[in-house]
Design goal:
binds MU-OXO-diiron, about 400 residues, about 35% helix, Metallo-beta-lactamase, Chain A
């Protein structure tokens, strides 16, 4: 694939990872890209690198545009290795470049990963002149590492947003208006739910900073660039960051429907029967509900459902005095992502000891979920009458 022109003398030169299916535990069914950009001016800047195995692909693209020794700056917006992993290989081939990154955290992080290079630390608001163009650096710490920053080119109206507004989405196309928008928005939501969600306060700060910028293109480090649907993705981030904190207020403001997600795993389908009865209760009161069996649904997809859900019910039978390991893994994952303002409860069937439901409830509390009712715990196989009681309880529950 050739480099792609964003604007005259501004190029995409990154790499497409068609085969990636797992990004540290998050399933990436549509692959990924590691976007790097090149600005050719009186000085030449390469913005970010790519994951280590793709170094040669990046260098070949840059070489199609300009001799490698003419690269003056390598801008590292983020230390994480999907963007910096090929820095040692790239720096061998662009020996005249200085490495521009945030100070102190970028310099500290890159030094810890790769050792000494000619670092040029930049503070929030610093600018770097490339000739006719400049790059201004906006620090976005903890979005999602301490070192994060974004780079803005006012002359071209391009925001190089690094992880923000990204999607794990492999394509031969590079822009939002060249691919099905629904697919890209779905991947952007999954990216937000699994990477960005814990940092909703920082998202609000970043959106505030971006609101003051004149932007033609948002060029993230993953997925397609935004040029036709900028308002849509920025609105979605505002929506998701607000929802991460206050789903009630959001519902009021955006008229989004309340939704529920019932997450469970079952051994002999008794817990599953309770899950279906709970879902019936939510549905009977007009609340759209998703049933998610951990046997067949990945936790990273379930978190995408939870991104816009207000109610979460989680169920597990008891196995050897514990909840099932996949339920524990899901709850541990959700606790890390820390969705705010959700309400829910625990449920499950049991044979004799039945500790799992209390354990699920304890984890829900640790996740910050407000409990709506006592845990629902039924012995052995629930019959029709028991399931009707469960449905009715949910249907009439004070939410
Ligand atoms: Fe895409 Fe935080 O790295």
């Amino acid at each position: 694939m050739r480099p792609v022109v964003l604007k005259p003398d501004v190029y995409w030169a990154g790499a497409v990872d068609w085969k990636l299916r797992n990004f540290h535990g998050y399933t990436t069914n549509r692959g990924a890209t590691y976007n790097a950009y090149l600005i050719v001016d009186e000085k030449t800047a390469l913005i970010d690198t790519v994951k280590a195995p793709f170094a040669q692909e990046l260098l070949e693209r840059v070489e199609q545009i300009i001799p490698l020794e003419k690269v003056d700056y390598l801008i590292c917006n983020h230390v994480e290795m999907d963007h910096s992993g090929s820095l040692p290989e790239v720096m061998k081939r662009i020996p005249n470049a200085r490495v521009v990154c945030s100070v102190p955290q970028g310099v500290k992080g890159l030094t810890a990963h790769y050792g000494d290079y000619p670092y040029q630390g930049v503070k929030a608001g610093d600018s770097l002149s490339l000739g006719k163009r400049t790059l201004t650096f906006v620090h976005t710490p903890m979005l999602h590492w301490p070192d994060n920053m974004v780079s803005y080119c006012p002359e071209e109206k391009i925001l190089f947003s690094n992880d923000a507004f990204g999607q794990h989405y492999a394509s031969s196309k590079r822009f939002d208006d060249e691919v099905p928008l629904g697919e890209v928005m779905q991947e952007a939501a999954k990216y937000y739910a699994n990477i960005v969600m814990p940092f909703h306060s920082q998202v609000k700060g970043a959106l505030k900073a971006a609101a003051g910028l004149d932007i033609d293109v948002i060029a993230p480090s993953h997925g397609v660039m935004w040029r036709s649907s900028i308002e849509r993705i920025v609105d979605a981030y505002a929506h998701w960051s607000f929802f991460s904190q206050e789903p009630d207020a959001l519902r009021f403001e955006k008229e989004s429907p309340e939704t529920a997600v019932v997450v469970y795993q079952s051994m002999w389908r008794s817990t599953e029967k309770i899950a279906y009865a709970i879902a019936d209760g939510f549905i009977s009161r007009g609340i759209p509900t998703k049933l998610r069996d951990l046997d067949v649904c990945h936790r990273s997809d379930i978190m995408t459902d939870i991104l816009e859900a207000k109610y979460i019910a989680v169920g597990s039978p008891t196995l050897n005095n514990n909840m099932l390991p996949d339920v524990a893994a899901f709850l541990t994952y959700m606790r890390g992502l820390a969705p705010k303002g959700r309400k829910g409860f625990a449920f499950g069937s049991y044979g004799w000891s039945g500790q799992s439901v209390a354990q699920v409830e304890e984890m829900l509390t640790a996740c910050g979920v407000e409990l709506l009712c006592e845990k629902m715990r039924l012995q052995y196989i629930p019959d029709g009458a028991m399931l009707s009681i469960i449905s009715g309880q949910v249907e009439n529950m004070k939410l």
